[in-house]
Write a sequence for this structure.
């Protein structure tokens, strides 16, 4: 569980000696200072807690949430981070992919999640079409922060370094998303694992280095070959969150519906279903219908 008020000293979990600790704190003092200023805002405290937890070697548990009830229940269960993902397009709105999700829809769901989440870090996705330029990205990110998010997530690596730099300059915490990028699904013709070739691996490592240098506070790795995801996690000094990328990242994220069995029409291979909520909904609904119909005899 994230502890609010903790101080960020990234690298402590990877110490090999006294010199390593000193070097890590010197190299990344600027990153800590960005979020460790007075007054301690709700947003900055959660970023610090997120980073400090990784520093202690604590794995970060991240789940998506799209409304008040989900956010409140997941908060009560102790989840560290809530991601208002544009995956809501498919599991909530019935779109075929995430490219149809609008900024207004992201704002609507971010507000609902923010109302239900008291303790977790809340990250909101920048949807397709909202990051055309760095300035446009900053403007849309400010809207998500005003809606209650503590940070935003942007798809793209080195190609979006300027966007990330602009967000950092505007004091908007940003997590980068590399590997398989769902907003590119129509261009790439499907959801494909990344890092299978030496060329792809090198590009991913370059993306990770670029977004870290640009000022991202964290990095999401989606459908990256586990060995490559591990290498990125070992090299980068910002926390990594994996989805379908093996177990060696600093944390893991899944779509809530995949964990609780709320979207039975599609089940990703990498997600372990831990409940069957859809079956319970069908059972309870059928029972209600039977009771109502029985009274009509």
């Amino acid at each position: 569980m994230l502890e609010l008020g903790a101080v960020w000293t990234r690298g402590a979990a990877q110490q090999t000696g006294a010199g390593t600790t000193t070097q890590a704190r010197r190299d990344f003092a600027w990153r800590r200072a960005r979020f460790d200023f007075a007054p301690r805002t709700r947003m900055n405290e959660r970023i610090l807690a997120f980073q400090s937890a990784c520093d202690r070697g604590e794995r970060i548990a991240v789940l998506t949430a799209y409304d008040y009830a989900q956010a409140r229940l997941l908060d009560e269960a102790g989840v560290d981070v809530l991601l208002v993902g544009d995956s809501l397009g498919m599991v909530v709105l019935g779109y075929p992919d995430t490219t149809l999700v609008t900024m207004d829809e992201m704002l609507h769901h971010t507000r609902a999640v923010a109302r239900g989440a008291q303790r977790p870090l809340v990250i909101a996705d920048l949807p397709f079409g909202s990051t055309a330029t760095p300035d446009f990205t900053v403007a849309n990110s400010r809207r998500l922060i005003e809606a209650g998010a503590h940070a935003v997530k942007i798809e793209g690596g080195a190609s979006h370094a300027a966007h990330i730099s602009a967000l950092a300059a505007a004091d908007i915490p940003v997590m980068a998303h590399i590997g398989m990028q769902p907003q590119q699904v129509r261009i790439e013709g499907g959801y494909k694992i990344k890092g299978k070739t030496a060329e792809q691996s090198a590009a991913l490592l370059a993306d990770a280095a670029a977004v870290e240098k640009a000022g991202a506070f964290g990095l999401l790795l989606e459908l990256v070959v586990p060995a490559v995801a591990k290498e990125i996690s070992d090299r980068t000094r910002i926390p990594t969150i994996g989805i379908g990328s093996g177990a060696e990242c600093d944390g893991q994220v899944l779509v809530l519906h995949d964990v609780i069995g709320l979207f039975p029409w599609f089940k990703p291979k990498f997600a372990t279903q831990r409940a069957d909520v859809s079956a319970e909904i069908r059972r309870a609904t059928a029972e209600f219908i039977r009771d109502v119909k029985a009274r009509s005899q």
Confidence is low (pLDDT under 50) at residues 5-40. The radius of gyration is 20 Å.
